[in-house]
TrEMBL record, chain A:
Subcellular location: Cell membrane
Domain of life of the source: Bacteria
Annotated InterPro entries: CPA3_antiporter_subunitC, NUOK/Mnh_C1-like
Protein keywords: Cell membrane, Membrane, Transmembrane, Transmembrane helix
Provenance organism: candidate division WOR-3 bacterium
Keyword flag rRNA-binding: no
Name of the protein described by the UniProt record: Cation:proton antiporter
Membrane topology: Multi-pass membrane protein
UniProt key word Membrane: yes
Gene Ontology CC entries for this record: plasma membrane
Database matches in Gene3D superfamilies: 1.10.287.3510
Similarity comment: Belongs to the CPA3 antiporters (TC 2.A.63) subunit C family.
């Protein structure tokens, strides 16, 4: 139970960065934190007390393994996170090139 | 991006090949030990990234980098997709594991998994190298 | 599992530093601290595959962040001592949301199976079939490339998409007219 | 129907081939995408004939992992609802691909456009046919990421700003959905949608259940741009290239938001008006707020595409009111409106692209004084607008009738009256463009129209007219009624899938 709450706190820090910060890089960092929080939460779900990583070895034929599915899903989620971060940062570079600032308050040409 | 000192350059020369080999090992043993196509692909990309960071991007021909990475990425993706489609061509099912499974703990075992790892490794390595080139290394925005 | 709690505290602390510090370069490096503590936590919960991928991805993420910051600027110009009303408003909304979310999730987590006791309805079948039918030693590889290979095709495609997307966005000229 | 994997494999094949072959021949992307979208359209039309033979639901097991006794692999669960969605996706993407061939002449980086376009189509098709929850998330991300890049395709200041805003909001939605999937997995220990539905019915609906439902609803409402979450849409949809605006407004938000949400809420969680009335009331309230607020903002717009974008928000409101009414006629109305709006709004955005190409601006006041006569676009635009507003002989008429009928059957007269009155508002803001841009020009130079443009316009307007006139002969009984039944089936979906 406690580790889950830690993940939620990390998640909230990410949300905090996205909602209150005005710097684009800070917003991107907030996204990374969000991704880590969700990935960690997912990985924790699969953990089973006193079990081993789900890999058979020639020496140890024990079959008490943790859940392999969350690991496979988190692997996918990490890659997706990397892709979105890269795309966000490339937009950030272009915005800085055009506006010479990372402040989202000054990047406001589209109005209601 | 400028190159680094001579110490870094020398150590990079020694390490770079080893890192590349380690990436290949991780890909090839993906179905036996932790790792696999994705981790190995990133490590292979990292060996190239180390080269550029140490020696600087002036000596590196960027356009060739984009060309090769884009070709390898498409080839990796196509390879993976064709492995998946081959099961459909056989009339069995999409993503059917059509190869003989072999013996446990052998390098050539578990059917299509090593092949898929290889395809993903090529694709991921090339793709991440292209991202690095575009975002971090090149001094200019891509011309087109 | 005391290590897990210590690492969680480290990650949360580094996360706060990454969000609040003025220098963007320091911020990116603190993000690296969070990423590496997440990687070590993956090892602690018996997920070596994830740990390897998390470490290499984290290295790459930090390199990209540092590259972007070096190309542009490393000073957060929005970081000021005096705050506007709008900032307090945003913080107030966030605090309200955070309390609501935390209580809701606390109540909800009580109904989950406890930490360290997963149900493993399908996973137990996977572990047997992966060993006997696919003959893969690494069960995670068996899951991502055989049982759920189609997801991995999607994952590889996501990366492909973002590479093409990055190349698209970094074009010098978009319209010729 | 064992060709189902081709719905995603074909566009992916095209997307991987395009960068490779474009090194040899620059415009190869045009040919590849035209061929692939045509093939996809043929496949989806073929499916309309084949699906009834299989009893309106077909389950495909990927990798030959059998569904019983326990669902090991990923499955495709292709039912009447998926069929309607696949048909809408591929019709519109075919028209947009044909249209883009000439439209792209003013842009650089042609092969990048086509690659991203094909990836987006692959993602949308993948969402519509999948029967696995995590797979749904992966394909959502594929189409979302390609749309972020496509919005910024022009790389002007405004495009980048719109893309940034869209990306931030969209990713918050995506990560919320991922968190919800993690919780679902922790609770049920399975990812197959039918199996999840089966497991959840036997459990009592406690706080965890509602936490998951609210997280998913939040995520999908962001993606579908209902009222409080709509602020990214006008920017993104007005700054994208015209064919992409047509895809985004026409089908993208509906597959990512509305289809996914209704599949999960009705078929997986088994919610309906009798066991969760408050949830559906919230949907109705948000929908009506969208209709009213976005409608009035649209009336004040001075930009052609921004007006259409606000109109999309308002029409999404109609669809959510229909889902919120929750009885058979409400749901059927929502689905019929989804289909009609996909074709109609797609067509209107395509005309916006042509007007921008010929006149060089999208500001309505500037267009009013410009010296170009555009009679062809004017006629097409007006017919499409009439259909969207629900004027009788066209496709858009019956959906609104169904919605009002549903509201009356559920004894919500107020809702029915609001829906009826605000159709007039729709007509008002859409015809504002006809009035200002197309009609008040007696003389001026006439502009030629490219053949590919004529073809795609006539295809869409022909479908809107013919399907509208013969509504009860083909479209309603064969597609929409069955799709409505698929939603109203509730959690019997799980039994149908797992029985195969």
């Amino acid at each position: 139970m406690l580790p889950y709450i830690g993940c939620i706190i990390l998640f909230l820090i990410g949300i905090y960065a996205i909602l209150t910060k005005r710097n684009i890089i800070k917003i991107a960092i907030g996204f990374c934190l969000l991704e880590y929080a969700v990935n960690l939460f997912f990985a924790l779900i699969g953990y089973k007390k006193g079990s081993l990583a789900p890999i058979y070895t020639q020496i140890n034929q024990q079959r008490n393994f943790v859940d392999p599915i969350p690991q496979a899903l988190v692997l996918t989620a990490i890659v997706i996170g990397l892709g979105t971060t890269a795309l966000l940062l490339s937009v950030a570079i272009r915005l800085h090139e055009k506006y010479k600032t990372f402040d989202i308050k000054e990047i406001k040409r589209l109005k209601e | 991006m400028k190159g680094m000192t001579v110490i870094v350059k020398t150590i990079t020369k020694l390490l770079c090949g080893l890192i590349f080999l380690y990436g290949i090992y991780i890909i090839a043993h993906g179905h036996l030990t932790p790792g696999g196509g994705f981790a190995g692909g990133v490590i292979i990309a990292a060996s190239f990234i180390l080269l550029i960071l140490a020696f600087g991007s002036e000596e590196f021909k960027e356009q060739m980098g984009y060309l090769y990475s884009s070709i390898f990425e498409s080839v990796g993706g196509l390879l993976f997709l064709l492995i998946a489609l081959f099961g459909l061509l056989l009339g069995i099912s999409f993503f059917y594991n059509f190869l003989p499974k072999g013996k446990l703990f052998m390098l050539f075992s578990s059917g299509i998994i090593p092949l898929c790892n290889l395809a993903i490794g090529i694709k991921v390595g090339a793709g991440l190298f292209a991202i690095f080139l575009a975002i971090a290394a090149s001094r200019f925005i891509i011309k087109e | 599992m005391i290590e897990l709690y210590i690492l969680l505290i480290v990650a949360i602390g580094a996360g706060i530093v990454a969000v609040e510090i003025k220098d963007l370069l320091a911020s990116a490096i603190s993000l690296g601290v969070v990423g590496f503590s997440v990687a070590i936590m993956f090892i602690l919960v018996q997920a070596p595959d994830l740990a390897i991928v998390q470490i290499v991805v984290e290295v790459l993420t930090v390199i990209i962040f540092v590259g972007v910051i070096l190309k542009t600027t490393h000073i957060d110009t929005t970081w000021t001592k005096e705050k506007e009303i709008r900032d307090y408003l945003a913080k107030g909304i966030f605090a309200f949301f955070a309390i609501f979310f935390l209580t809701f999730s606390l109540l909800a987590f009580k109904e989950l199976p406890g930490f360290g006791k997963p149900i493993m309805k399908i996973a137990s079948h996977y572990l047997i079939k992966g060993f006997e039918e696919i003959k893969a030693a690494n069960q995670v590889a068996a899951v991502i490339l055989d049982f759920r290979g189609y997801d991995t095709l999607g994952e590889a495609t996501v990366l492909f998409t973002s590479v093409i997307g990055v190349l698209t966005i970094l074009r010098k000229i978009g319209k010729t007219k | 129907m064992n060709y189902l994997p081709l719905f995603t494999a074909l566009p992916l094949l095209g997307a991987f081939l395009t960068p490779l072959l474009s090194k040899i021949f620059e415009k190869i992307g045009d040919i590849i995408s035209t061929i692939i979208t045509t093939l996809l359209l043929i496949l989806s039309i073929y499916s309309t004939f084949l699906l009834p033979i299989f009893g309106n639901i077909y389950v495909y097991e990927i990798g030959k992992w059998s569904l019983s006794p326990i669902p090991l692999g990923i499955i495709f669960a292709f039912d009447s609802l998926s069929l309607l969605m696949v048909l809408a996706i591929n019709l519109l993407s075919f028209a947009c691909a044909i249209y883009s061939v000439r439209y792209l002449d003013g842009y650089t980086g042609r092969w990048k456009f086509w690659t991203l376009f094909l990836l987006m189509v692959a993602g949308l098709n993948g969402i519509a046919i999948t029967g696995d929850l995590f797979n749904l998330f992966v394909f959502t991300e594929i189409s979302a990421i390609s749309s972020y890049a496509l919005v910024a395709f022009g790389v002007e200041k405004e495009d980048l700003e719109a893309s940034f805003k869209y990306q931030v909001i969209g990713e918050i939605g995506g990560l919320t959905i991922l968190l919800a999937i993690a919780l679902i997995y922790a609770k049920t220990s399975t990812l197959n949608m039918a199996d999840i539905a089966n497991t959840l019915t036997n459990e009592n609906k406690g706080i965890l259940f509602w936490f998951i439902v609210s997280l998913l609803t939040f995520g999908f409402l962001i993606k579908s741009a209902l009222f409080p979450f709509h602020f990214w849409l006008p920017d993104a949809h007005s700054q994208a290239p015209a064919p992409i605006s047509a895809m985004l407004s026409g089908i993208f938000i509906k597959i990512l938001g509305i289809y996914s949400l209704s599949r999960l809420v009705f078929n997986i969680f088994g919610l309906n008006r009798s066991n969760a009335p408050h949830y559906f009331d919230i949907l109705i309230v948000l929908g009506i707020l969208s209709i009213i607020i976005a409608g009035f903002i649209a009336l004040r717009q001075t930009n052609y595409k921004r007006l259409l974008a606000y109109s999309t928000i308002s029409q999404v409101g109609y669809i959510f009111v229909g889902l919120g009414i929750g009885n058979f006629w409400g749901v059927v109305g929502a689905l019929a409106l989804l289909f009609a709006h996909a074709l109609g709004k797609g067509l209107l955005f395509l005309t916006a692209g042509s007007v921008e190409k010929t006149s060089g601006t999208l500001n309505i006041e500037e267009l009013c004084t410009s010296q170009k006569r555009l009679p062809f676009y004017g006629v097409i635009y007006t017919l499409g607008a009439l259909s969207l507003a629900g004027v009788p002989p066209f496709l858009g008429f019956f959906p609104k009738l169904f919605l009002i009928l549903g509201a009356i059957k559920e004894k919500m007269l107020g809702v029915g009256i609001v829906l009826g009155i605000f159709s007039v508002l729709t007509l008002a803001y859409l015809l504002k463009i006809t009035n200002k841009v197309f009609t008040n020009k007696k003389e001026g130079e006439k502009v030629g129209v490219p053949i590919s443009t004529i073809f795609s316009f006539l295809l869409l307007i022909g479908l809107i007219f013919i399907l509208g006139v013969f509504y009860f002969n083909y479209l309603y009984p064969n597609l929409i009624e069955k799709a409505g039944e698929a939603i109203m089936r509730g959690i019997d979906y799980a039994k149908l899938v797992l029985m195969r």
